[in-house]
Design brief:
Largest sheet of chain B: 7 strands, mixed
CATH topology of the largest domain in chain B: Dipeptide-binding Protein, domain 3
Distance between the termini of chain B: 38 Å
CATH architecture of the largest domain in chain B: Roll
Number of domains of chain B: 2
Number of domains of chain A: 2
Family (chain A): Belongs to the binding-protein-dependent transport system permease family.
Oligomer: heterodimer
Number of helices of chain A: 14
Number of strands of chain A: 2
Radius of gyration of chain A: 24 Å
Pfam families (chain A): BPD_transp_1, BPD_transp_1_N
Number of strands of chain B: 21
Helix content of chain A: over 70%
Keywords (chain A): Cell membrane, Membrane, Transmembrane, Transmembrane helix, Transport
Distance between the termini of chain A: 7 Å
Membrane topology (chain A): Multi-pass membrane protein
CATH architecture of the largest domain in chain A: Orthogonal Bundle
Number of helices of chain B: 16
Subcellular location (chain A): Cell membrane
Chain lengths: 325, 601
């Protein structure tokens, strides 16, 4: 177990370094003077030189890259002050420390993810299991049909419709907004209710279909039939044997969805004008804000790698036959 | 001032400027629903009525408090919708419209524009007792500071703070703000006069900038600078108290002298302004402090802003658009909805969109004239929001400038707003241009740029050009076309004044002595007669200068034609039903941020 963790963590660090290097040098293939983007009307050579110096663009590319990567571990000093580790540099555009921007945006993205996740897991897995339990009945057909219809929707379609109904027309709810959970949990939930509902509607469908099919598959497994033959109750076998067996593929999908959402639910954030990590990533990329883009990329990569490890650990927990070696 | 530049993807139309001729009575419902002809006739008449130059106010005009807004109430917070963060908050770095609007709430300078109910502008003393006393034929300007001006922490503002605010502009800390005053004081390479600014104990000599006592500041120039009071209204020259200056950090946490101060700033996301209890209304002839504060949301795009304000539900009732406009796709909905139309303000912006010719490649004036005649100006306006987005231009000076002549139309665009292809073809024939000649057109990859590209390509194809359209990323468009050796024949550029004087348009865009990479003479025009007229006008008194500028303008448009006039830019914004005091500001060309209150706080 320990060896597995150490090996995976070393691998994660190497992958993150490669992602950082790839992003950094890819940026420099753009035929663009980054300093000119910050240069206003009086874009004289003197002003350009000042901006280059301020942004550190007057140094060789390799030096810039090395300073960026070492700053993550040791921190760096900037005219704005000391940037503590993990320092991801200073945004070309805003002049803010990148880490501060990410930390500022992350609670919203985390809230979106957690709230949406709870709803779509509970509803999605529940309805999928119900459909499997009632296989072939009207209930199964309704649940399966609804999941096919709902999975064909997109956030950018359902979002504006939900806003139109609940905000613009009826005024039942205010425009979605993030309020810190620590300030008032009720306001926090109410502010994100519409995005959660829309996200859940779409994500729920795939979990319903996935859990239904894997449950049905598991119910046909020999060990499940054997358990039933031994006289165990249907519900006991359903939850103790079939459900547990069906979790492996579901956990895989959850891991992928969760890492993608934590790295930034771009479409959701844009649809509801919510300033989370996804929006930060897109804005920084369009602005050609190299440090911010790299910071968000690395932060997202961190979650993808972390959740991959967590998923592997979960496999071992769910299925004792899996060994982490 | 500046081009309509997209500095970043946040893509804000930059504008700092003020306009003296913007439509008055531009609140919703005045002309929005009338016939087009009637409405445009009214626009032109209003513009014609307001060609008085900006006046300079005395001590009485500079004394606060500002005139009360009828029916104004105190209390509540206004929600501000904006699609991107402010470009800067450090006064020295401020040069574009979003930050300028913000500056009106937070910063104060020596002078400021005061706007009356008809949109006429007067320069008044802001923290100074008047708009400035000139002597020595306009080469020396003296400012006396008002008593009891304090920053948000209660520190008294003295002449040393004014000196510091000017001198810090010489340092490397500042790179994005206006450079007029520095250049006038120390020349175009002004940074060499004080390379570290005031940060290492050095100062400009008293022969340049003098502070004989705590209340007096004297500027010494080597030639008359009649525009100084107007230049000093720019937020770039607002006060940064010496003790409070944190250099680079100041851009995120500036100290207020104005009626509001920053309570919370989250980069790229939000700003909360609250009342500055050190601001004294009696010292301020321009601003009010009716509401308790402003909550900025800087991630709401123009489409969402319009949807929210159209619906006018919940928090949107207390909301305004800051420097963004009504979403063009929802414009007809807004105009056709009587309740929404009442909640709009609209008027001219200081920008003129022009089809710039790269004179290093487009050497034949007949060809340039042919393209000018062929351009379908009205269609270009339609692609930018229609009659509320712009108006066909006859010349290169905006209706917001003193001396604007609504009849000026050397290319007959007002009579034939969609161009005269026959005349264009005849000119091309005279010039010996063959059918299928390639023409490289660069455009910005904004939705508007893409829509206009199709129109231009089609129009120029009709007169025989094979238009090679080259898309440029919006963030770097002006950087690319600002290169002297750029590979493009024609490109659309926009420009607006820094203050209501042609000097801030003709000089930066058409002066042949200002041709260099990164500068704003995008056509590379270098005409000795135009250059001479510019020099002459800059040294003349306003009345004489106005005639010289007009002569230069006519010479540029008719004799050189470095850029075809396309359309004057216009602005329309929407606000919530609980907002009171909303009016179009001639000074900012946006909603007048200083006058707002909540009807039901």
């Amino acid at each position: 177990m320990l060896q597995f963790l150490i090996r995976r963590l070393i691998g994660a660090v190497v992958i993150m370094f490669l992602i950082g290097a790839f992003t950094f040098f890819l940026f420099y293939t753009i035929p663009q003077d980054f300093a000119a983007l910050s240069c206003g009307k009086n874009c004289s050579p003197e002003n350009l030189a000042v901006i280059r110096e301020n942004l550190g663009l007057d140094k060789p590319i390799t030096t810039q890259f090395w300073e960026f990567m070492t700053g993550i571990v040791t921190g760096r000093d900037f005219p704005q002050g000391h940037c503590s580790a993990p320092c991801l540099g200073v945004s070309f555009d805003s002049g803010n420390f990148v880490w501060d921007s990410i930390v500022d945006r992350f609670p919203l993205t985390l809230s979106l993810t957690v709230g949406g996740l709870v709803i779509f897991l509970v509803v999605g897995l529940g309805s999928g299991m119900l459909a499997a339990w009632k296989r072939g009945t009207v209930v199964d057909k309704i649940v399966s049909g609804a999941s096919i219809v709902l999975s064909s929707f997109q956030i950018y379609l359902l979002g504006p419709i939900a806003l139109g109904i609940f905000v613009y027309s009826s005024g039942l709810l205010d425009n979605p907004k993030y309020y810190p959970f620590t300030e008032n949990p009720a306001t926090w939930a109410l502010g994100l209710l519409i995005p959660w509902a829309v996200m859940a509607t779409i994500f729920t469908a795939q979990y319903t279909r996935m859990s239904r099919s894997t449950m049905i598959e598991q119910l046909q497994e020999e060990h499940v039939r054997t358990a039933r033959a031994k006289g165990m109750s249907r519900s006991y076998v359903f939850f103790r044997y079939a459900w547990r067996g069906s979790l492996i593929p579901i956990v895989t999908i959850i891991g992928m969805d969760l890492s993608a959402l934590l790295a930034g639910a771009v479409v959701t954030e844009f649809t509801f004008d919510l300033p989370g990590l996804g929006r930060l990533a897109v804005d920084s990329s369009i602005n050609k804000d190299l440090p911010l883009t790299m910071g968000v990329m690395l932060f997202g990569a961190f979650f993808i790698l972390l959740l991959n490890i967590v998923v592997d650990l979960a496999y071992a927990y769910i299925d004792p036959r899996v060994r982490l070696s | 001032m500046k081009p309509i530049r997209t500095r970043t993807v946040r893509a804000i139309a930059v504008a700092i400027a003020a306009g003296s001729l913007v439509l008055t009575g531009c609140s919703g419902g005045n002309d929005g629903g009338g016939s087009k002809g009637k409405s445009d006739a009214k626009s032109q008449a209003d513009a014609a009525e307001q060609q008085d130059p900006v006046s300079y106010g005395d001590a009485a005009a500079s004394t606060g408090p500002a005139k009360e807004v009828s029916g104004a109430k105190s209390g509540g917070f206004i929600n501000v919708y904006q699609q991107s963060d402010l470009t800067h908050m450090d006064p020295g770095q401020i040069y574009v419209s979003d930050a300028k609007q913000f500056s009106n709430l937070v910063h104060r300078g020596l002078t400021h524009f005061q706007e009356d109910d008809k949109g006429n502008l007067t320069v008044v003393g802001d923290i100074a007792t008047d708009s400035g006393q000139s002597s020595d034929g306009g080469k020396t300007w003296t400012y006396k500071l008002k008593d009891d001006i304090k920053d948000e922490d209660g520190n008294a503002i003295t002449s040393a703070d004014v000196r510091h605010s000017i001198e810090r502009l010489y340092s490397k800390v500042i790179f994005d703000g206006p450079t007029f005053v520095q250049s006038w004081l120390s020349g175009n390479d002004y940074r060499k006069a004080l390379p570290d600014g005031p940060y290492k104990g050095k100062h400009l000599p008293d022969s340049v900038l003098e502070t004989p006592d705590d209340k007096t500041v004297v500027f010494h120039f080597d030639q008359p600078r009649p525009d100084l009071p107007q230049a000093l209204t720019m937020p770039g020259y607002s006060i940064v108290p010496e003790k409070q200056d944190t250099k680079e950090k100041y851009d995120h946490a500036p100290k207020a002298l104005g009626p509001y101060k920053i309570a919370e700033y989250k980069a790229g996301k939000s700003i909360k302004l609250v009342k500055n209890d050190q601001w004294d209304a009696k010292s301020d002839p321009v601003r009010h402090q009716y509401v308790d504060g402003f909550n900025f949301s800087n991630t709401i795009d123009a489409a969402s802003q319009t949807k929210r304000l159209l619906a006018d539900q919940g928090e949107a009732k207390n909301a305004i658009q800051f420097t963004d406009s009504v979403d063009p796709a929802q414009l007809s909905t807004v105009i056709n909805d009587a309740s929404a139309k009442k909640r709009t303000i609209h008027g001219y912006q200081p920008y003129v969109w022009q089809m710039t010719f790269n004179l290093d490649r487009m050497k034949d004036k007949k060809v340039r004239d042919a393209i000018t005649y062929a351009l379908p100006n009205q269609s270009m306006v339609q692609a930018d929001g229609g009659r509320y987005g712009g108006e066909v231009a006859g010349g290169l000076l905006a209706p917001t400038l003193p001396g604007f002549d609504p009849e000026y139309d050397p290319f007959g665009k007002l009579k034939k707003p969609n161009g005269d292809p026959e005349k264009a073809k005849a000119l091309l024939k005279e010039a010996g241009v063959k059918e299928g000649t390639k023409l490289t057109y660069a455009y910005s990859n904004t939705p508007r740029g893409q829509a206009q590209m199709v129109i231009i390509k089609d129009a120029l194809a009709k007169i025989g050009f094979d238009v090679q359209a080259k898309e440029i990323d919006r963030a770097s468009f002006y950087e690319q076309v600002g290169k002297l050796d750029n590979p493009y024949d024609i490109y659309m550029t926009g420009w607006g004044q820094d203050w209501p004087s042609p000097s801030t348009v003709i000089t930066p865009v058409y002066d042949g002595e200002l041709i260099a990479d990164g500068l704003s003479n995008y056509s590379h025009i270098n005409d000795s007669e135009v250059n001479a007229l510019i020099k002459k006008a800059l040294n003349e008194e306003p009345e004489e200068a106005a005639k010289t500028w007009e002569k230069a303008h006519h010479r540029i448009v008719e004799e050189i034609n470095p850029a075809a006039p396309v359309y004057y830019s216009k602005q329309i914004q929407l606000y919530g039903s609980n907002i009171g005091g909303a009016r179009y500001s001639t000074e900012s060309s946006y909603i007048d941020i200083n006058n707002l209150y909540l009807k039901q706080p």
